TrEMBL record:
It comes from Rhodoferax koreensis. This is Small ribosomal subunit biogenesis GTPase RsgA. Zn(2+) binds at C265, C270, H272, C278. Residues 78-241 form the CP-type G domain. It is an enzyme of class 3 (hydrolase). The gene is rsgA. Its EC number is 3.6.1.-. InterPro entries: G_CP_dom, NA-bd_OB-fold, P-loop_NTPase, Ribosome_biogen_GTPase_RsgA, RsgA_GTPase_dom.
Length: 314
């Protein structure tokens, strides 16, 4: 009788549907699938995996099974009305990459920030294409309320380089960072600069796993500097950011500009939508007063509150 094979530790560095790429501490990568029906492992998960027995699975794209997930520090996810989609686990921070052009959606930015706040993951906002001049100045101005909320915000010009890239590198060092951004903001440019060749390699890997399917539907972890523990996680889908896991009654807690006025509300269970004596409503003012709530942000709050109060629609 042969001894039971030992479970080995690994890190999930990519997911493609139900399949995962698991990286061992020595750097070897293998395709694994989770045991059982549910696919629960996400990029950034520490797992224990088991090699497939000779003749089982090997050569069919499965080198092992994921037997156990280690406890997570956090789980960044979006949830739409029908399916829950996890982005990644065990993050140190989220980098929200937007650009002067194409114009970004403030609602999407707010949604990403709320998702980060809900999991207590610090966000960094980077505004790319500072070389564009006027459009950049305008976009930077639009972001004033977010600076007033205390968010870390960085101007960038990925195309022309410059010292801001050094500042970004400083912030990324030794950390695992999830990068989110709308199409055209410069995400591919950033990943290519930090990890030359990475996107090409991912395309090839994706093809091997999933012939013919589009490569950008997967989440992938890239090592910028493995020894220093610097990793970037690229995940598509900024557009479809549902927040249905967030309770409408807690929404204000995840919007710092709104949260700081809650103490002024007359009713402890104020929804800040129509109540008399609401500290939040009283603070909604146009202009750049540091302590006010911008009408745009208040509208985002109201829209999200309505959306989250509906509950799931099937
Ligand atoms: N002017 C200017 N253009 C930039 C800068 N960074 C990236 N771009 C350009 O913006 C366009 C979009 O950049 P990508 O890196 O492909 O953007 P992406 O976010 O990966 O977009 P998708 O591939 O659609 O997801 C490209 O034409 C880049 O050359 C910058 O700092 N300044
Ligand atoms: Zn109120």
């Amino acid at each position: 009788m042969s001894a039971r094979p030992a479970l080995a530790p690994g890190l999930v560095v990519a997911t493609h549907g139900r399949h995962c790429i698991v990286e061992s501490p020595d750097g070897t990568r293998r395709i694994c699938h989770p045991r059982g029906k549910k696919s629960t492992a996400v990029v950034g998960d520490h797992v224990l995996w088991l090699a497939a027995a000779q003749g089982q699975g090997q050569g069919q794209g499965d080198d092992g099974t994921i037997e156990k997930l280690e406890p997570r520090r956090n789980l960044f996810y979006r949830q739409d009305e029908i399916r829950t989609k996890s982005f990644a686990a065990n993050l140190d921070q989220v980098l929200i990459l937007i650009a002067a052009e194409p114009e970004f959606s403030e609602t999407q930015l707010s949604r990403a920030l709320i998702a980060a706040e809900a999991e207590r993951i610090p966000p960094i906002i980077a505004l790319n294409k500072s070389d564009l001049g006027e459009p950049f100045t305008r976009a930077w101005g639009w972001l004033a309320p977010y600076r007033a909320m205390g968010y870390d915000m960085l101007p960038l010009s990925l195309k022309t380089g410059g010292e801001s890239s050094g500042e970004l590198a400083q912030r990324l060092k030794g950390k695992t960072t999830l990068v989110l951004g709308p199409s055209g903001a410069g995400k591919s440019t950033l990943i290519n600069q930090l990890i030359p060749g990475a996107l090409v390699a991912t395309g090839e890997l994706s093809q091997a796993l999933n012939t013919g399917k589009h490569t950008t539907t997967s989440t992938t972890l890239y090592w910028v500097d493995k020894e220093a523990g610097t990793a970037m996680i690229d995940s598509p889908g900024f557009q479809e950011f549902g927040l249905h896991h967030v309770d409408a009654r807690h929404l204000a807690d995840f919007m710092p500009d709104i949260k700081r006025h809650i103490a002024g509300c007359k009713f402890y269970n104020c929804t800040h939508l129509h109540e008399p004596g609401c500290g939040v409503i009283a603070a909604v003012k146009p202009g750049d007063e540091a302590d006010s709530i911008s009408p745009r942000r208040y509208k985002i709050y109201g829209d999200l509150f309505a959306e989250l109060s509906q509950g799931p629609r099937y």
